[in-house]
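Final report, Chapter 2: Outcomes

The project's central promise was a pipeline that accepts a single protein chain and returns its three-dimensional structure in a standardized token representation, suitable for archiving and comparison. That pipeline is now operational. To close this chapter, we reproduce one record exactly as it appears in the project archive, with the input sequence first and the structure output second.
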Amino acid sequence: MNLDALLHNPNFLSGLCGVGAFGVVILIWTALVENDPLPARLKNITQRRSELRDAERRKKLSRRPAANRIGMIKQVVQKLRLEQGRKLDELRLKLARAGYRARDTIFLYLFLKLALPIGMGFAGFFFIFGVHLFNLKPALGFVVVIMAAILGLMLPDIFIKNQSQKRAQVLRKAMPDALDLMVICAEAGLSLDSSFDRVSREIGPSCAELAEEIGLTAVELSFLPDRSKALQNLADRVPLPGVVALANTLIQTEKYGTPLAQSLRVLSAEMRDDRIMAAETKAAKLPATLTIPMILFILPPLFVVLIGPAVLKIIGIANGH
């Protein structure tokens, strides 16, 4: 079946119209429904608190709780033993940096790493050799199928990396405001635990991602026996320079007894200076950045406006008009 016959097939056109209508409905639904991430973030904090309580209870009672019901994806991953040979702690940290810290997220990630290469490779084989959608030579067709399978293998990592970068950008913008709130809480006499809890509640409407991270740190400060471990977990989950500096400063404050308000005030001033320096750096790069767009889009119309009338007049004189 060639491309023309496929395009004139009523079943194919009907299916294509149905897919397009479904996509339009999804887009309209996404645009109209308000997406509030705060409830999901608060749910993750509550889940983390429950996990820490369960761990403490298991440590005291020296027994393991009953296993929860395992879903189909988790069963497939465990039967195929896809989690073996992988550093699960590093993988959980990688997913947490992207904002996915649910218990079964790691099994979904491993399942997609298996299913997407097979699915995309089969789809490429079907469209190239089954319906002959593209008139390709067999050797080139097999190369395309292999490339589709490799793309399917890379898609989960690309998606997680993209989400991590977007989340890091959001956290970077909101971190100075959270640090200022933390300075205010420390100067008001609140402890470190209370400061984290208060800042988490206050910054939640403006940045749910940072509120989630700070809330998780407040929970871990209350339950973990080593408080420096909770602060180090914050630096591991959010590997930004400002957050790492905050975690190191608070660890030193807890270790040597430095006044909390003074340490946070110094760190806030340094972060504010870093923001000013970053803005000045972007402003200094602006002329070089605008050079190519100016050459491509501004100078040609300018030349046309300035030289065009003279050229038309010369052409008219040459033609005897």
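Archive annotation: The two ends are 62 Å apart (CA to CA).
This record, like all others produced under the grant, will remain available to the consortium after the project formally closes.
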